[in-house]
Here is the input.
Amino acid sequence: MLGELINNDDQSARMRIEELERRCMKCQIVDIKPSLVDEANQYWGYNATTNLLYIDQWNNFTRFGKERIRQVFEELAKNFALS
Here is the structure.
């Protein structure tokens, strides 16, 4: 049941983000979902193999979650140059 709720919310959220991207020419969409899914491309907020949580009870990233998404933001940072 929780997995279904997450998937339904994910679909709605992705539709909203696609619409935002279409309307906002200056917006840069950052997708961290690929960093937080399992082998079956399902997001659970934790690693079932290691039992490490990526998100805490307040919906903040844990140290392990931050490690998972760090690569996404490092790639994003390469697009910005200091002058």
User: Anything to note?
Assistant: Helices lie at 2-23, 63-77. The longest helix spans residues 2-23. DSSP finds two helices and two strands in the chain. The mean pLDDT is 83.
